[in-house]
Design a protein that fits this description.
Elements (H helix, E strand, L loop, with lengths): L1 H50 L3 E5 L2 E15 L2 E12 L7 E8 L9 E2 L2 E4 L2 E3 L2 H6 L6 E8 L6 E8 L2
């Protein structure tokens, strides 16, 4: 009888020890998960801030501003993709009839249809669509184009060859 009590007490102690160890391990896993989520949120916040940075180009007193906004993202077979909306704003006082937008870095597209609304001039160089070249981008107006980047971050763009009439 004493042996049975000792065995029961030992079994109870074992179960309690295992439960305590499991709860500690569970708390550690939860803490690691929370830290990972916080790190991911911080990284996404930095990327969003980078994507929304504005770039300004001044040419002959005319200013063209570029801003980007990440609108979507996903992962496919371990590869990250992001959709960006790019807005060009004519902040000058004269109509701009054309401009070349140059993807300087981090512009990783997989097919031509991954860029829309602008027309390709050459590798990583785009310009206004033909209708806009005819009518122009009036002062204070904007044009928006988009692209799918094989990256979590935005491309870096510059502008050159602004055309005025």
């Amino acid at each position: 009888m004493l042996f049975k009590r000792f065995l029961l007490l030992a079994l109870t102690f074992c179960l309690l020890s295992c439960a305590f160890a499991d709860s500690i391990q569970g708390a550690q896993m939860q803490q690691q998960t929370e830290q990972t989520q916080q790190a991911q949120q911080a990284q996404q916040g930095q990327q969003a801030q980078q994507a929304q940075q504005q770039q300004n180009w001044n040419h002959g007193g005319q200013q063209l501003t570029i801003s980007q906004n990440k609108t979507n993202a996903w992962e496919d077979n371990g590869v990250q993709y992001s959709v960006f909306e790019v807005t060009l704003v004519n902040c000058g006082t004269t109509t701009i009839y054309d401009a070349t937008v140059v993807a300087e870095s981090n512009f990783i597209i997989t097919k031509p249809s991954d860029v829309w609304t602008v027309e390709k001039v050459s590798e990583n160089r785009y310009h206004f669509p033909s209708y806009l070249c005819q009518n122009g981008l009036e002062a204070g107006k904007n044009i928006t184009f988009g692209y799918i980047n094989k990256s979590t971050g935005p491309a870096v763009f510059s502008v050159c060859d602004l055309q005025f009439k």
